[in-house]
Amino acid sequence: MAASLIGGLVADNWSTDQIYVAEPDEGCRESLSSRFSIHTSHDNHSVVMASDILVLAVKPQVMRDVTTNLAEAVLRKRPLVVSIAAGVRMVDLSHWLGDYLSLVRCMPNTPAQVGSGATALYADPSVDNAGRDMAETVMRAVGLALWVDNESQIDAVTALSGSGPAYFFYVMEAMEQAGIELGLSRETARLLTLQTAFGASKMALESSDSPRELRKKVTSPGGTTESALTVLKEGQFKKLFAQTLNAACERSKKLATKLGQYTDE
Predict the structure, then answer these.
(1) How much is the pTM?
(2) How far apart are the first and last CA of the chain?
(3) In the chain, where are the structural domains located?
């Protein structure tokens, strides 16, 4: 995700001289430096001191160690801190950073890797409009970026768009297999599935109609599409998806509690 953000910023004409990355792995540092011509370092503290916007792009399980180690530098430099780590609550980030409040929490998704991500952001109330604009600009470099009203909504975002690409991949996997079982070659089934998914998404993005209205427009009474949709309705497809997102949302809440164990100490 960090590499995707860097690539998006460079493509958005950010000066590579403005981008600093701390990376412990020498091979990764060399790769990033060669690929993007940016500043790289093994030293987190030096990067913090060079930053007005600090993006925390580390695994949730190591966030506590990373932020407690950075707390002194962050309190000295006072950058806007943007976290893209799933399941790490702002109350925990603030605590680990020495009760620091200039924080923005983001939930991007993997299509950011191809510049088509969907990111929801939530800012601490202390972050001003300029700070919000800076955070949004960074995340918009890899796709859609929008704000939610309260942090608790991030769990719903995680369930919907954070995990969402996997749901669509699963549907595509099922459609491709069904096409093969109907007699199509694997390559034909794959290409038709992918193009259909792309085309449907493009239509939905470019139309002022809701998905419900678009569905109605392509469903002729007594036709093949209506017959297919009847099977989905009888299988309670919408209910199944509601259960799917609820499971992901509840898991997100549990992970946040587990990662923020300091509150129980």
Answers:
(1) 0.88
(2) 32
(3) 2-154, 164-253
Chain CA centroid to CA 107, Å: 4
Is the CB of residue 84 less than 8 Å from the CB of residue 56?
yes
Strand partners, 82: 55, 104
Q: Which amino acid is at 200?
A: A
The top-level CATH class assigned to 2-154 is alpha beta
* Dist. CA 140–CA 259, nearest whole Å: 27
Neighbours of 136 (CB within 10 A): 19
Assign domain 164-253 to its CATH superfamily: ProC C-terminal domain-like (1.10.3730.10)
Q: Across residues 195-203, what is the average pLDDT?
A: 97
Query: Strand 80-83 and strand 103-107: pairing?
Result: parallel
Q: Is the pLDDT of residue 44 over 50?
A: yes
| Burial class (CB within 10 angstroms; exposed 0-12, middle 13-18, buried 19+) of 137 | middle
